[in-house]
């Protein structure tokens, strides 16, 4: 590869576990670093995503800010990948879909135990919650899916390595799991 | 001279009365399935075992084997079809694999791995379903039920109890429990029942022993279901 | 089995009364009529009497649209919601009715006086908009008639004191051919059949080339022959009068106007296969026919044409019981129908074995459509050459069509097989026709460029539904109506139909509201094809036909509503913030989003 490919990453309604798994690539990261340049990502301090070759999204879509970030990624990234269970099917955060948003907020801010000054936060600075958590493919077109909670470092490395080398992406049996 | 037919070019012997699935399993050929368990009457509802006979789609588990028929099984088209069916099952329920004790030994997962499903991709239904934790030894998580009716068949045909039933119609179809309260604890169910050991997914689970096998050593962690076989078979062994 | 003060509904008992589990559905139908729901105490009682588990009984109740565990109104009203009803203004009338009754559609009024729901086509396409009230059919609804209904509900007038004109079903036979023009002599077919013997009768049927008129077109002679040849102690004759395919009503006409032919055809079948018991599975929507049918059965018993020693033949005993359906389209599928006859949920069986070898209670069973039995009776009277004088070599004889929609003369038409769609449209006075839906929701949508095609098993095969749409119609509405119909009627047994029919409906809604992209159309094609190839029964295999035909033959209907973008969200983004806006009282710019589907 001649010039490095630009990669942006984001964690929406996720736990950063998928990002941890990315870092878990360990020493192989050094091989990759020569080929990759990070744009917006929790790993850099870049606030706005610029034109990128690859976007990696962790987490599902739970609020208005998630939607805006996801749309910005879609606009800027040639290839957008759903990384991990939450991005793929909402994951654990989507378990709140069993309840109405009112039930969730009332439990968290009004009726739950140990609450002082019960009120539902309404500061305009806070992103508004969607009535349900959604997988990211329901909001933007997704080019590739990497399952796992998180996908193993090995799986992420295989994906990046094969993508960089232009080979068809193929995984060993053990590299694909949904948990 | 025995009867035989062909699956993907391999000659498979069969005896009269055997289905395509029976003969394939006997011959060690894997045809993906979820609602089928050789111990029970074939059901044909999950449609995962759909194969082609002379270009005609049939369910391998309910179709009798026939002399000289040519069956297509692991073709690109059929594997693609199966992936779609699996995706439908995943979006229909609430399958949060990371939070499920059955994960790693779940047949829905295993068949999906076998068929190369990376994500469910369709719109998710997120149905509102409940959990029945009333019974001291067994928990029912309706979120994960795929309506294979194995528990219905096992309870009715093996346990002679008919604890489980299906109610509703269409997308409203759902598993029910026969008891005055509708709760498992008030039913005739016992954790030693056959019905407790046939669920291919995490809908019927024993209590008190979740996550007892480390990741990496679980049933389908290292090898695909085509080699390992159905989870029900292993559940039987584990319980003995 | 029900309270002593039970109303008139018990007069015409339908159940076998033998205390077996097979009675369940019939008992539930009576209970629903009596109590307007199935009370829990009755479920417990049935459970004891029929040795069935309570959850099994609830499972049956929840399968059928006309049975409820929750209290419905003393007047249970169901508005027929087929596209042809809608084209006749049913939706507006339903809203008018709802308003007048002070009730939301889909609910029961707080005082339990009345409940109002939509239901699938009730077989009145030639005289819609139509509705059911406590099982009885209201036809040709108008604002005026809706007001009459509201007044009588408010006054709690018993149904038998309502004007009969509200319930009048008039079947107009607009075109007759050899079948309907032929005079029928009661008993002549049976006499001929008995005189010549079963073998000769089967040969006659075979020579006539009669094929099943439900749409599948299986050779009637072969079906009877297979059943007769199956080794068993008993055999059964079943008439499929579950005419549920949207837009069809020709069996309604035959049941009403040619009952004797039907019963004679069934009796002939009994003579051929050696059966002593027959069933007419009458769809719940045709409950108004139950009493007249029972009366004719009784007349025939008295005339020695049914019951013991038919026509004096000592060893020929055959009688017929009528079973009611309770609002489930799937029960028109023959094996689901048999399950329903056995009192169960109408889930289609795996085949093989076919009903001819293992049908009702595991015994060999012939299941034929109403029209097939009627034709068989006429063939036995008139001979095969008479039948073959019209039609085509592969499709001899004629076909009854139920014509509705945009034409001057909707009604029953008998046409020889091989008649072109163009000729049919001309005969019924259809003008500027955009498309015809032939064979009901499960059938095919035929564009004008194909109007030279013919009604025949070798070309367009149909059970008889023929719905016409003129150029002022929005065809996508029909496609949507059929797609929702299948979502509602899927039995839920197999994965592709259960989930696929819901996803298709969702995707189509996205098209309807103008939020879909080309990718959504691709997804509908993929789902449709999957359902066709992998579904357990004919319902699932045909449920995507409306969308697939639409995409294939009327692509512009869909294309014109697409977004130019390559992708649109699956849900309405801004609407999904509404709940949070209400909870927080926010309405600032950041409290809104743009884009999305439904």
Automatic annotation (TrEMBL), chain A:
Q: Name the source's superkingdom.
A: Bacteria
Q: Which GO terms describe its molecular function?
A: 3 iron, 4 sulfur cluster binding; oxidoreductase activity
Pfam families associated with the record: Oxidored_q6
Q: Coiled-coil segments, which residues?
A: none
Q: Which residues cross the membrane?
A: none
Q: Specify the NADH:ubiquinone oxidoreductase-like 20kDa subunit domain's residue ranges.
A: 15-162
The answer to keyword Zinc applying to this record is no
- Keywords of the record: 3Fe-4S, Iron, Iron-sulfur, Metal-binding, Oxidoreductase
Q: Which PANTHER family match?
A: COENZYME F420-REDUCING HYDROGENASE, GAMMA SUBUNIT, HYDROGENASE SMALL SUBUNIT
Protein name, entry field: NADP oxidoreductase
What species does this protein belong to? Answer: Sedimenticola selenatireducens
From TrEMBL, chain B:
The domain of life for this entry's organism is Bacteria
4Fe-4S His(Cys)3-ligated-type domain location, by residue?
77-116
Classification via Gene3D superfamilies: 3.10.20.740, 3.30.70.20
Q: Which SUPFAM superfamilies match?
A: 2Fe-2S ferredoxin-like (SSF54292), 4Fe-4S ferredoxins (SSF54862)
Q: Which InterPro entries match?
A: 2Fe-2S_ferredoxin-like_sf, 2Fe-2S_ferredoxin-type, NAD-red_Hydgase_HoxS_gsu, NADH_UbQ_OxRdtase_75kDa_su_CS, NADH_UbQ_OxRdtase_Gsu_4Fe4S-bd
Required cofactor(s): [4Fe-4S] cluster
Name the keywords, alphabetized.
4Fe-4S, Iron, Iron-sulfur, Metal-binding
Q: Name one GO molecular function term.
A: oxidoreductase activity
Output the Pfam families linked to this UniProt entry: Fer2_4, Fer4_15, NADH-G_4Fe-4S_3
Span of domain 2Fe-2S ferredoxin-type = 1-77
Q: How does it assemble?
A: Composed of 13 different subunits. Subunits NuoCD, E, F, and G constitute the peripheral sector of the complex.
Q: Which family does it belong to?
A: Belongs to the complex I 75 kDa subunit family.
Q: What is this protein called?
A: NADH-quinone oxidoreductase subunit G
Species, as recorded: Sedimenticola selenatireducens
